[in-house]
Design brief:
0% of the residues lie in helices and 60% in strands. It is mainly beta. It has one domain. A hairpin with a 7-residue loop joins strand 7 and strand 8. The model has no long low-confidence stretch (mean pLDDT 79).
């Protein structure tokens, strides 16, 4: 699940970020539309990478909590088979600056929406976009994240 040359704004500074990682999900029955869709329960979500080519530090995005009420869906949109995957992810980010400063821990204030259109299931690659900007918070600051 690569995210290449995304934009990340941390405390008013915009940087590029290249991350790689994975999302693991379990398929559950979607009682609202069992014929055309399934629910996807997120079991694990973790990606990490370098900010500004490693010059500005590193970042890790991880799932906040266990997905007890999955909102994620995989929908068959039409025939021949086309799919739409929509994930609602609440996660945290840890920014570790290279300059020796204090690490910055952030949490999403609400779920970030990730949408993709895989050609097959399971998808060989996960090409998707995040709707944004998402708002993050710590006890003392707020910052924005604008995916590209």
């Amino acid at each position: 699940m690569p995210w290449i040359r995304g934009e990340l704004e941390i405390q008013g500074t915009t940087c590029t970020v290249d991350v790689r990682g994975n999302i693991r999900q379990r398929v559950d029955v979607n009682r609202d539309d069992p014929v055309n869709s399934v629910r996807l329960r997120t079991l694990a979500f973790r990606v990490s990478g370098e900010i500004g080519g490693g010059e500005n530090g590193s970042i890790v995005f991880e799932q906040n909590e266990v997905d007890t009420d999955p909102k994620n869906t995989l929908v068959r949109t039409r025939l021949p088979l086309k799919f739409k995957e929509c994930d609602m992810l609440s996660f945290s980010a840890t920014f570790d600056p290279r300059d020796g400063g204090e690490p910055l821990d952030l949490r999403t204030d609400g779920p970030a929406v990730r949408t993709g259109y895989p050609n097959q299931v399971p998808a060989r690659t996960r090409s998707a976009t995040f709707s944004g900007p998402s708002t993050w918070s710590t006890p003392s600051t707020r910052t924005g994240w604008r995916p590209s």
